[in-house]
Design a protein that fits this description.
The chain is built from eight helices and four strands; from the N terminus they run ββαααβααβααα. Helix 2 (42-59) crosses helix 3 and helix 4 packs antiparallel against helix 5 (153-177). It has helices spanning 32-40, 42-59, 69-94, 110-142, 153-177, 187-193, 200-214, 219-227, and strands spanning 2-9, 12-16, 99-105, 180-186. By secondary structure, it is of the alpha/beta class. A four-stranded mixed β-sheet has the order 2-1-3-4.
Length: 235
């Protein structure tokens, strides 16, 4: 598994990877989550939501103004799910890895790259633990909507988030305690740092070049989402 330390700002970095989808729903814990799995067919619904979110991510925005309110609401929910999947995909994959290749800008020393990884994973662990508690409470509250006719999309959404946060916590903890990180410098990632202050056209061109050089498919979307607006587009 290759993980990339992406420069997204002045001394700001984000971890990124592109891996085929696995089946994280197979690792639902016992107790409360196991009960939810029986009640809501969690494994099947989790898989379906992952697949639908992946389609939403790949196809992008679709004009749904001609569709009904429920269909538009579901599409909006799936966009939220797609964003959550994109954010948490790396942590989900880390759960099953013993060794990871860490690609970092080649003008950065290896100890610094390791430090940034540990700092990011520690933040992720704390963040997802907090949101697991919040979404668990929201899921319980959403149960009050069982009197409303039709599928309880809100409950399904918060159930998905709960499972996602749980798996992200496991991935962050495994990455901190068990994964062997093998750093390697990348000239392409160093050149990506210079894209941050370019205008929109130059920035997109630079990111696309790095994306092609590294053999990645979605780096440009990730960079646009995490690096913010280019200097030429601020105002």
């Amino acid at each position: 598994m290759d993980v990339y330390l992406i420069p997204v700002g002045v001394e700001q970095y984000e971890l990124y990877c592109e891996e085929p989808d696995d089946h994280p729903e197979e690792e639902l814990p016992r107790g409360f989550f196991r009960k939810m799995k029986r009640r809501f067919s969690m494994k099947r619904r989790f898989s379906m939501m992952l697949a639908e979110a992946e389609r939403e991510r790949r196809h992008g925005h679709v004009d749904r103004r001609h569709e009904g309110g429920i269909a538009r609401g579901r599409a909006r929910m799936m966009r939220w799910v797609a964003e959550a999947v994109a954010e948490q995909r790396l942590l989900w994959h880390l759960r099953r890895r013993d060794a990871v290749a860490l690609l970092h800008p080649d003008d950065m020393e290896e100890p610094r790259a390791r430090e940034l990884v540990r700092r990011q994973l520690a933040r992720d662990f704390d963040k997802h633990r907090f949101w697991l508690i919040v979404d668990s409470l929201a899921f319980i509250t959403s149960g009050l909507l069982f009197l409303v006719p039709g599928p309880n999309l809100i409950a399904y959404y918060f159930a998905f988030r709960m499972v996602g946060h749980y798996l992200s916590i496991r991935g962050a903890r495994h990455g901190l305690n068990s994964v062997q990180w093998n750093p390697a410098g990348s000239e392409a990632l160093s050149s990506l740092r210079g894209a941050i202050d370019l205008d929109a056209t130059g920035r997109d061109e630079r990111v696309r070049q790095v994306e092609a050089a590294l053999g990645l498919e979605h780096l440009a979307k990730f960079f646009e989402r995490t690096a913010g607006a280019p200097s030429g587009g601020r105002g």
